[in-house]
TrEMBL record:
InterPro entries: AlphaKG_dependent_hydroxylases, TauD-like_sf, TauD/TfdA-like. It comes from Petropleomorpha daqingensis. Its cofactor is Fe(2+). SUPFAM superfamilies: Clavaminate synthase-like. GO terms for molecular function: dioxygenase activity. This is Alpha-ketoglutarate-dependent taurine dioxygenase. Residues 22-308 form the TauD/TfdA-like domain. One of its GO terms (biological process) is antibiotic biosynthetic process. Keywords: Antibiotic biosynthesis, Dioxygenase, Iron, Oxidoreductase.
Amino acid sequence: MLPDTALPDVVLTPGRPAVLPARPDGDLATWATNARDALRALVAEHGAVLVRGLGLRTAEECGAVIRAVTDGLTGEQEAFAPRQPRADGVWSSTPWPANQPMCMHHELSYRLEVPSLLLFACLHAPERGGSTGVADGPTVLAALPADLVARFEHEGWLLVRTYTEEIGEPWPQAFGTGDRAAVERYCAAAAITPEWLPDGGLHTRQRRRAVLPHPVTGRRCWFNQVAFLNEHTLDPEIREYLVDVYGPERLPFTTRFGGGDPIGADVVALLNEVYAAHTLREPWQDGDLLLVDNIRTAHDREAYTGARDVVAGLADPVRLDAGAQ
């Protein structure tokens, strides 16, 4: 049962996420405070819910709603591409070329402390495309080949990074400090193995779980960024260029099986195909708010045309353990 609330019924449509029509009367932050328990219950039930009709217009309004709904906000150390602050607790979307889709992933799943709740607000919808799709982790897990799941459960997965000045965040920006000793302390606490390179760069390896029990429900979830951060997700020409410039062992980023073996293009293609088969998608409308259970539910972003302004809140961090089960 949902908490007693004036919220209308959720609309459930095949192929689309749960949509909650909203008719706030007055201050949005007050509405969000009153609706908080019901909204969180809907996220727990459906994994993601799109609130339509809020009429969010500014990052400040988004911040007030986000703070009313969440228990606490978090940032994103070890970032690949810097988000820009837009308001208190509100960030820009991850920078990504508009003409390239961003494939399914669980936000910051390579860290030990991850946001368990994501909030995306659309201030301006693009002309075409650009939706944020969602996919249920337990459903994806059940659709994957049993032998592949067993290997990932046994070994986990490796994120291998080489921080450069040319692609992604240089290490001082990613870790928020230019002090090597401070970076080493962070890595020790975060189960990351660092290697300082002769040119001043940083190479890291971190082993993480690929399948995770949900911290509330206990359901097994496919939870990782194995496909999203793998070199084979890149355009083949870009991948060939990076291998030529950096070599296969010093790519800016890639993923491997937890034991260190490469993950082939066939595995990456399979993962993305399974995600695609179980993706729910709803085009953005101005003023929408999408709440996502980040442990249970992966999300992506379509390629798009026209201006798009979607801001994000990363909330309710939980601490995970490293390595495989």
